[in-house]
């Protein structure tokens, strides 16, 4: 493998099964995230994902943000990983039978997450780059949110609200 947390490992699926078993043992919901990019865009992961049976399989299109992962201010350059909308759709079509699949294109993702930096500023990514708000420590959350670019409707549309706890055990701590 050239990318990801399993980089260099030959037993990636075996490791995921172990993690799934731990989640089951400790009553934790199991979710998998995948960023589709130039290195995995042609793969078919359906069989493995169906066997692992996560509660959600979030499939993201590689998103480029000026200053975050592209441009002179970026710590890492992700341009070589970028795929276009048609390529992302092909990947999704190949995996359409996976029941837990939750796709997130760049359009859906870009403003439907709240992102805080190390200075407790929301980052507005509407224009393809990060524009920070004033710090929530200085102006409060309500004021800073006004400059976050957060799209509540897209958050709901992309499935941002979902069951993330096991209801029966919600207050068992």
From TrEMBL:
<protein>
    <recommendedName>
        <fullName>Radical S-adenosyl methionine domain-containing protein 2</fullName>
    </recommendedName>
</protein>
<dbReference type="GO" id="GO:0051539">
    <property type="term" value="F:4 iron, 4 sulfur cluster binding"/>
</dbReference>
<keyword id="KW-0004">4Fe-4S</keyword>
<keyword id="KW-0479">Metal-binding</keyword>
<dbReference type="InterPro" id="IPR051196">
    <property type="entry name" value="RSAD2/Viperin_antiviral"/>
</dbReference>
<dbReference type="InterPro" id="IPR058240">
    <property type="entry name" value="rSAM_sf"/>
</dbReference>
<keyword id="KW-0411">Iron-sulfur</keyword>
<keyword id="KW-0408">Iron</keyword>
